[in-house]
Amino acid sequence: MTAGQPVRSSMGRGIALYALASTVAIGLAGGVFTAVYSTPVERQAVWVSALVALVVQMVAFAIARLLNSSGHGIAGWGLGAVICLTTLVIYGFASRALGMPQNAALLSLATYFFLTELIEPPLLNV
Predict the structure, then answer these.
(1) What HEC string does the chain produce?
(2) What pLDDT, on the 0 to 100 scale, is given for residue 73?
């Protein structure tokens, strides 16, 4: 066993816990949005946004974990927030170009990002 193995297993455990917590939070919020939005196109936009949020947040969390392990946790968390904001802006243009309902797509994505950002800090050190 080398010195790098415990760090890698800890990194994997933290990412797995974050993935689970984010999936649950996004799933619950998606259920609420599905109840609020009644048309099939709006519901599809809600779940496309959920997938985008989960993928983006997993990448952002991995970056934050890497920076946190080198003593720059706040910088990693800030970079993740910038990644989310940039994604939200790009997604706004892309969803409009694809003809998705803007309210459902952008409100759900912003909510998913907000919820998953709240989950991040306690799991950065796991």
Answers:
(1) CCCHHHHHHHHHHHHHHHHHHHHHHHHHHHHHHHHHCCCHHHHHHHHHHHHHHHHHHHHHHHHHHHHHHCCCHHHHHHHHHHHHHHHHHHHHHHHHHCCCCHHHHHHHHHHHHHHHHHHHHHHCCC
(2) 78
